[in-house]
Amino acid sequence: MNCRLTRWAPILLTVAFYAGPLPAADALSKDLTSTIALLGLPCGQVVSSRRLGENDYLATCKNKMRYRVFVDAKGRVVAQRQ
To answer: Which of 7, 9, 50, 56 could form a disulfide with 70 if both were Cys (CB 3.0 to 4.6 A apart)?
Structure first.
């Protein structure tokens, strides 16, 4: 195997591993921001989120407000202030 490839392979794998989840997290933050805004709640922008279960998230907004965003038994998206 090429010596240069042997040297760079672990570095490239590490970069790919850590860079992979970032776009998904960014997309989730955008989706949660849009959902909270469409429900008419003040948020501005979701800065962090934590998954509580399937279709159940705890979102922290830029204005320090926290919302639990989930799908209820009727299949509707609900955001509750925490």
So the answer is: 56
Side chain identity, residue 73: A
69, 77 Cβ separation under 8 angstroms: yes
Q: What CA–CA distance (Å, rounded) separates 18 from 27? A: 16
Q: What is the CA radius of gyration of the chain?
A: 18
Residue of 26, 29, 45 whose CA lies nearest to 37: 45
Q: Which pTM value belongs to this model?
A: 0.69
- CA atoms of 54 and 71, how far apart (whole Å): 9
pLDDT in tens, 14-73: 655 555 555 556 889 999 999 999 999 999 899 999 999 998 999 999 999 999 999 999
